[in-house]
Amino acid sequence: MNKNKWSLFFLCFASYCFSQKLYFKKIEFGNPEFENKLLLLNKELIKNYKEKDSLKYHDNYFRFQMLDKDYSGALKTIYKIRNAYKQSYPYYSKIIGIQFELYSLVKNSTKTADIEPVYENILRERYNQLPIQSRYLIPDSFKFKKDFNKNEVIKILSDSIKNDSISLKNAVLLCRNYNTYITIEKTFSIAECILKKLDKEDILAKDSIIIKTQKGNEIALYYVFNKSVKQPSILHFSGYSLNGDYYNYNSKINANRGYNIVNASSRGIYASNDQIIPFEFEINDVNEVIEWITKQPWSNGKIGMIGGSYDGFSQWAATKRLHPALKTIVPSASVGFGIDFPMYNNCFSPYMLRWLSYVKKETDYKLFNDEKEWLSVYNSYYKNGIAFNKLDSLYGVKNPIFQEWLKHPSFDRFWQSKIPYKKDFSKINIPVLTFTGYYDADQRGAMYYFNEHHKYNKNAEHYLVMGPFGHAGVVSGVDENYKGYAIDPVANIDIEDISYQWFDYILKGSKKPEFLKGKVNFQIMGANEWQSAKSIDELSSGKLKLFFNKTKLQESKPEPGFIAQKIDFFNREDTLKSLDSEKILDTIIDKSFIKYKLIFESDVFDKPVEIIGNFTGELIASINKKDMDITMEFYEKLSTGQYLKLAHDYFARASYAKDNTKRNLLKPFVKESIPIHNTFSTGRRIQKGSKLIVVLGIRKSADAQINYGTGKDVSTETIADAKEPLDIKWYTDSYIEVALLKK
């Protein structure tokens, strides 16, 4: 469960519209009579408070019971709340309101003023009764500051009492906040000290360790483990700041699985004082950390790696010069540097500058998430029609990394040197488990590593798991409802748990995770099932091939002809309204810049059809320029009229479609063949009564690098290069195809 859901349990109070008034004379907080008067008000609440929602009722009522010194009653009410959540959140539910539970247990056990020894005994007893997953959530319950509740009490006393009366709503708020204030004041400092002792007894954690590389550079890390015996180590190597959180939940849980957990950051990040250059040094630096781990007294010499996005890239970078101690990697949503970021199919995007802005010594998440700021930058670039390589100047800070990346629009040696390339894969003889998703922006990076590994190493023990997940879902935990689409129940997998079952299999000799039925595992959306096989090809039983004809997708090849399209690059009225308003399941096709796109639809399917893998095909086109950036989106139009996006959007630069290492410009007014490949994979049971929809267009928007078609370096083109509109003829022998699932 993610951190946002945690707010359910600390325990929120909704606004109630009670008109009832209770007698209460205005009095200052700190007045010797204040508490006595408040307790009389609290007794009135116990008599008069009602609430239709039982959870909200209990959430407030146990606090009234505590103030009334009915601690046994308060405990019973707290346990009722926990019981309501035990199915949905089994580990969190066990500690809901634990700060109030502990105080109530203590008050039931002693009348003495010095409660610390009793509190420690009770906390230790409760701690030892809990599963590990619940234990390490407890500290979050004690992070609240009493000043907040004190100030709320003072504010209510000042603003909400008129004519010697207080509304029922404000009386509830007053008693809630005062009870929390008392609980914090009496117990939190005690609890924090005891929890630190318990942590030290359970685990060993060391923070801000600096490793010096052979060339004198600095890499910062922290590590966590729970035993002083030699055991395998799991390395997580990130491009983001560690923030000193060495007591983080996942590290402690995974240490209790019997592993040393080592978390390292790229040089220049966190406690390292080196220069930050993302993606530049991981080949050497990850292996320096691995070498350091092997020399520690707690290491048994066996190391696995885990992590997603940039941290998935780090694992693959390490395999380019594989250290003998690295026994397996489990990359998720792995960035393919130069494959899908900072360019995808040789097209750059403004997002690359946004990403660079928050990769700092202390990761700047606030700036990264500032939608207003980035909408302004993107839209200014678009409206003004400046060159893409001036984007950082528009932002206000010249970025040398941004400029260096733009010098390499081909997948050249610059990118190839940072990740395994061609024959490098033949030397990667360790088992690999890859996770990615149909809506993961880094799926094509993950698939680059998967496909190339199998291409160059026929004995590769490389497993793949793919389902209806977005990027964050693959990295941080699957979303049950992703952008309006409720995933099938079987798709709701625990990626972290499967990963550690894999580590047990490789590093400890346990059995292979039961979930992995084959080397490739696809969740078939709409069928509520996983399909597994030895290879992607083994899942296929042929292909569905559809030709473009006017507004139709059809299985028979049409009569010769073409569909005309005109793109006016001068028109800049349609700026971005949001950075991400996309829905996977919606009543309309993606609203953004739809007028630059053509919509093609198939006939209605008269029976369910299951598709698997990625869309491929060939576009036959002629244009009046030398280049263009193509976009394609794939949907199922349901019989209800809704549109289900089948995979992440595809786009590609036509001049690189045949070879991403070398630009081959199109010849104006000449019929050209443009292969469609490197699209995003999917797995879906197309429903009876549905249609397949393909949206074809040209990349022209505020969140895109705009290719004006002059043949010059696209990063240097400006709106002055637009001159005349782009005229396209899409010929009717163009087609797309997708594999059909073998049963």
From TrEMBL:
In its UniProt entry, what is this protein called? Xaa-Pro dipeptidyl-peptidase-like domain-containing protein
List residues of the Xaa-Pro dipeptidyl-peptidase-like domain: 228-472
Tell me one GO molecular function of this protein. hydrolase activity
The membrane spanning regions, by residue number, are none
InterPro entries on file: AB_hydrolase_fold (IPR029058), CocE/Ser_esterase (IPR005674), Xaa-Pro-like_dom (IPR000383)
Q: Organism, per UniProt?
A: Chryseobacterium arthrosphaerae
